[in-house]
């Protein structure tokens, strides 16, 4: 139900969702093993860092909203504010699904990229808890694996 312009705005703004990771120590982002609780708390601060970095910008509200809400969960168990359901702006709910898909299907220092099917299964399993179930269904209708196919 979004216009092409709204979709493009969300797509463009989403590119900056993790800009705050610039302020997170690189050794944490590149750590090959699991993060400790303290290390994970440091990484989670990237949301606050990103918002501080862009606080002075006017006209970047969608970017700021996505930064602030892309780690919130539909059931309220996300961060940083633990908002839930439709309290999470639509652009943040959309970015959350896309961010997780991208993260899972990309190589990381601590694990190899997952297949498209593995990532889709993960997202489907979290529909209605981590993610807005309606948006998951819409996402699954349009997402295709890298290289094409369905």
Task: Describe this entry's structure for a reader.
Helices cover 51% and strands 0% of the residues. It contains eight helices and no strands. It has helices at 4-14, 26-29, 37-44, 46-54, 61-69, 90-104, 116-125, 133-142. Helix 1 (4-14) packs across helix 5 and helix 6 packs across helix 7.
List its traits.
mainly alpha, 0% strand
In short:
With 150 residues, the chain is mostly helical.
Q: What is the strand and helix layout of this fold?
A:
Blueprint: H1 4-14, H2 26-29, H3 37-44, H4 46-54, H5 61-69, H6 90-104, H7 116-125, H8 133-142
Question: Would you list the SSEs in sequence order as H and E?
Answer: HHHHHHHH
Strand content: under 5%
Percent range of helical residues: 40-55%
Largest sheet, strands/sense/barrel: none
- Coarse structural class: mainly alpha
Poorly predicted spans = none
Q: Work out the number of β strands.
A: 0
The CA-CA distance between the termini, in Å, is 23 Å
């Amino acid at each position: 139900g979004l216009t092409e312009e709204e979709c493009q705005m969300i797509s463009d703004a989403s590119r900056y969702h993790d800009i705050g990771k610039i302020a997170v120590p690189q050794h944490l982002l590149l750590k090959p093993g699991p993060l400790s609780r303290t290390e994970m708390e440091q990484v989670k601060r990237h949301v606050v860092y990103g918002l501080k970095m862009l606080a002075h910008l006017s006209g970047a509200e969608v970017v700021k909203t996505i930064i602030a809400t892309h780690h919130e969960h539909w059931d309220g168990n996300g961060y940083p504010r633990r908002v839930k359901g439709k309290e999470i702006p639509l652009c943040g709910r959309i970015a959350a699904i896309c961010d997780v898909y991208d993260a899972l299907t990309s190589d990381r220092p601590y694990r190899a990229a997952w297949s498209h099917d593995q990532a889709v299964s993960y997202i489907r399993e979290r529909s209605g808890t981590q993610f807005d179930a309606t948006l998951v269904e819409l996402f699954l209708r349009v997402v295709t694996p890298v290289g094409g196919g369905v």
